[in-house]
Amino acid sequence: MATALYCRISRDDLGDGLGVNRQEQDCRALAARRGWSHLEIYVDNDISAFTGRTRPEYQRLLSAIESGHVTSVLAWAPERLHRSPRELEDFLELIERSGTTVETVKAGAWDVSTSHGRLVARMLGAVSRAESERTGERVSRAHQQAKTRGLWRGPIPFGLRVGETPGMPVIDKREAAVVRDVFARVLRGDALTRIAADLNAAGLKPRRGEGWTHTGTLRLISSPALGGLVEVDGELHEAAFDGVVTAETWHDARATLRRRPRGEARRPREKLTLLGGIMRCDEHGHPCFGGSAAHAATYVAAGPGRCNVSITRAAADALVTEVLLRRLEQPDARELFCAVTEPSQAAAEAVELRRRRDEIAGLLADGLLSGTTARPRLEAIAERLAVLDAEVRPRRMNDSLFTSPRSTWARWMPPQRREVVRLLLASVSLRHVGPGGGPRADPTRIRIAWVTR
């Protein structure tokens, strides 16, 4: 039989655990006064009980109570155990059933064997919940006010560090060089998985976690602070501090990632082909992917409807590349490029979504809509706006694409070349050879349609 000491703190920004250590010291002192020597410690550091996140040590504590291993629970205060009435009810039922005693340093013993004791416990839980909600409202309002002044609120991303003035992070020179390289590689088309692997191989550690991952790299790039921006009511505004990269670079990198097809985002650039997944069978519409036949690399479309059409990859790539480069060498190439990036439809949808977002915010402010109802709607609108912003944002290419397209094309990576193909060509289709057969490498079997206004 053991006495459980449960310690929890919602936020530990420094990660030093001093808050839970102080709780443990006070609980140990109370246990010593009670003569309880067989103690087991359960600590959930930097985990809020208000948000509903899973608390691993709390769950382990419940299992120990259920099994009869723990007969007494000590905590610093009732709110360290619960800030959710629903969670409290489950806990009261468990300790009443198991006969476990509960005592806190600040509020004394909980006697839940009587209706009055359970009433007191529920009242304390309701007060804790209300205090959490009021604190959340005050913090949210303070954060909103600070962000309207261009100050940063939230975890400071890799590349920046805490400055002398609150809300004004400063550039960390060593980390900033790494961040700028990451953004440059994203714009070149490198997969985030490859970038993360290279960061780990270089021995660079993220702010949180043991190593870089695809998700962690995406989270880094998504931080507006790196572009010298803050988000206010779903809109990005210039911050009062300097970013690691320019706002233009930050927007371009985000748009590049959102435009990149999902299957392509994780593949190393060396494994990407020029037309894989872009070219389609002319008869059935099935996409063509990389394959091999007779020791030659090919594009193959295989699917239902007796579709089995292929072409030598070198022949297809050479034709499409030459057609694109010759078009880019024409005097009106720049005008063509600008014409196909006209974002009228996406822009119109974005305007409508922003109008709906403002309408929901107005209903919420007037008390005609609850936060629970409004939140999922606002989140869905924000997610769709992020996609539309990537479509609306012009695809900026280096001027060398128009002044010296061939040398630029030779220097560019496969993801950049594929972006040009998707941008300028409405479709690339592959015709079947026909009953009489024909050369597999015949490039005249490819049909190209240009994007028009």
Question: Care to describe what's here?
Answer:
This protein is an alpha/beta fold and about 450 residues long. It folds into 4 domains: about 1-140, 3-Layer(aba) Sandwich (Rossmann fold); about 160-270, Alpha-Beta Complex (Hect, E3 ligase catalytic domain fold), CATH 3.90.1750.20; about 270-340 and about 395-453, no CATH class; about 345-395. Helix content is about 50%, strand content about 15%. The strands form 5 sheets. The chain has a 5-stranded mixed beta sheet, sandwiched between helices. The protein has a 3-stranded mixed beta sheet with strand order 10-14-15. Strand 8 and strand 9 form a beta hairpin. The protein starts with a strand and ends with a strand.
CATH architecture title of the largest domain = 3-Layer(aba) Sandwich
What number of structural domains do the residues give?
A: 4
Structural category is alpha/beta
Low-pLDDT residue spans: none
Radius of gyration: 30 Å
Number of helices: 17
| Beta-strand proportion | 15-25%
Alpha-carbon distance between the termini? 77 Å
Give the neighbour order of strands across the main sheet: 2-1-3-4-5
Largest sheet: 5 strands, mixed
